[in-house]
Amino acid sequence: xxxxxxxxxxxxxxxxxxxxxxxxxxxxxxxxxxxxxxxxxxxxxxxxxxxxxxxxxxxxxxxxxxxxxxxxxxxxxxxxxxxxxxxxxxxxxxxxxxxxxxxxxxxxxxxxxxxxxxxxxxxxxxxxxxxxxxxxxxxxxxxxxxxxxxxxxxxxxxxxxxxxxxxxxxxxxxxxxxxxxxxxxxxxxxxxxxxxxxxxxxxxxxxxxxxxxxxxxxxxxxxxxxxxxxxxxxxxxxxxxxxxxxxxxxxxxxxxxxxxxxxxx
Length: 265
Ligand code: NAP
Fold this sequence. Notes:
The chain is of the alpha/beta class and 265 residues long. The protein contains eight helices and seven strands, in the order βαβαβαβαβαβααβα. β4, α4 (104-132) and β5 form a beta-alpha-beta unit. The longest helix has 29 residues, at 104-132. The relative contact order is 0.11. NADP nicotinamide-adenine-dinucleotide phosphate (NAP) binds next to α1 and α6. Residues 13-19, 37-39, 42, 64-66, 90-94, 113, 140, 142, 185, 187-188, 190-192, 195 line the site of NADP nicotinamide-adenine-dinucleotide phosphate.
């Protein structure tokens, strides 16, 4: 593959919102695409629009990533298609209700999509990236990974998983020429909010970003070599201080004796 050839990007959850904008921007950058979601009509109409506008090849795959068979199908694509150079793990659902008014079966379904599917897709793609000498994974987390008090706690937990898993992937795969980026969007104007239980119109305007600006900032962050990208965060020093505090904790977290303040003789 020459430097000009970008290869194929597989984008999950590309039928609307953030995923559809990633598909558009990546096609414009020269990637061929495989776009995945449940709504085939939407995928097809996006594919024809993108092919007409950019001339790239856009394949659509209808799959429910919350379902074993659908997920296995996309794992198969990621294992077999050697042209894939970029995976955008974007498909996800959220919730805005607290524990006492949430249905635990819906919470489990959220975990299956946001955590299990993202994990299995990553496991499916990485060995091929290693064998081919490189690749990129963009994992869509959320600011609730850092502030789970803001929305439904299980949603926050799933996105904290995405952040921690990405941190570990970066650590394990850096030597293998595999780029990992984790994106932590704030409130973004998509259908996500209506599906999660609070339509975006109910949020204060000043905290809501367009999906276009969110994705453009994230791709700019990727180009600048960022690992964690928080498109809304003006003062990048705050995130650096957070990471510094985490690094300072790390060598102090496991010892034979309990800390002095617990008064264990
Ligand atoms: P969205 O417009 O609702 O898009 C979600 C996408 O995921 C759709 O394409 C949807 O397509 C797909 N999807 C949902 N369930 C699926 C399933 N079971 N199998 C396959 N695809 C499925 O919302 P969005 O805001 O763009 O969300 C994209 C990601 O951004 C999510 O991971 C979300 O957690 C994250 N995020 C969003 C915000 C925000 O404020 N909007 C903030 C932080 C993070 P189908 O319905 O056609 O399957």
